[in-house]
Amino acid sequence: QQQVKQSPQSLIVQKGGIPIINCAYENTAFDYFPWYQQFPGKGPALLIAIRPDVSEKKEGRFTISFNKSAKQFSLHIMDSQPGDSATYFCAAKRRNAGGTSYGKLTFGQGTILTVHP
Amino acid sequence: KAGVTQTPRYLIKTRGQQVTLSCSPISGHRSVSWYQQTPGQGLQFLFEYFSETQRNKGNFPGRFSGRQFSNSRSEMNVSTLELGDSALYLCASSLTGTGGEPYNEQFFGPGTRLTVL
């Protein structure tokens, strides 16, 4: 059962554009929502994260918008650059409530972003 | 501070063999999680370790096992390799609170690329 659905699978924008990647979740026990960026041959790198008590969080050119009632969250990349071309993953984690919640990030399927010069 | 390191980076094995992968977490991080990344299934949680104890386990067969040492370094082992075990195996580490609960932020290593022939 896929608990975090991510779209689109791929996205192409021009330099300076604002790509938007969307994720939806089902489990209301999730209370931490990170985004990871992965370049070929590298491990995922934590980009930005949000908790459900906040509707928006911005770090540099990256913004997360969070809609708790709709159980959706999205990543916006302002003034995108060719160097932003990578695969982006959203994820979700349950609040810590004993061992069965520890460590487990549930990931979306990923979005391959290409930013043309 | 050095990041998460994983060895080896690449590995080629044949069906039926077993393999051991190693992970050294960021200094001071005591929680270590393992993930499998494949094109078809994406990133999937394998298990989480803290204080030499497995606290959480994903939905993988018993051929997948792991352990953690007193210095927080971790290994995972896959026995009786199958073709479908070909994947990028990622290790992530996180800080923990005074009660041992892992912080939400997980930091990934570069992964070990396992190819099973």
Can you walk through the features of this model?
The complex is a heterodimer of chains A (117) and B (117). With 117 residues, chain A is mainly β. In chain A, 0% of the residues lie in helices and 55% in strands. Chain A has no helices and eleven strands. In chain A, the strands form two sheets. In chain A, strands 2, 4, 5, 9, 10 and 11 form a six-stranded mixed sheet that branches. Chain A has a five-stranded antiparallel sheet with strand order 1-3-8-7-6, with no helix packed on it. In chain A, a hairpin with a 6-residue loop joins strand 4 (30-38) and strand 5. Chain A starts with a strand and ends with a strand. The model of chain A has no long low-confidence stretch (mean pLDDT 94). With 117 residues, chain B is mostly beta strands. In chain B, the strands form two sheets. In chain B, strands 2, 4, 5, 6, 9, 10 and 11 form a seven-stranded mixed sheet that branches. A four-stranded antiparallel sheet of chain B has the order 1-3-8-7, with no helix packed on it. Chain B is built from no helices and eleven strands. Helix content of chain B is 0%, strand content 51%. The radius of gyration of chain B is 14 Å and the shape is globular. The mean pLDDT of chain B is 95. Chain B has strands at 5-7, 10-13, 19-24, 31-38, 42-50, 53-57, 64-68, 74-78, 87-94, 107-108, 112-116. The chains are: A mainly beta (117), B mainly beta (117). The A-B interface holds A 32, 34, 36, 41-46, 49, 89, 91, 93, 96, 99-110 and B 4, 31, 33, 35, 42-45, 47-48, 50, 55-56, 58, 90, 92, 94, 101-102, 104-111.
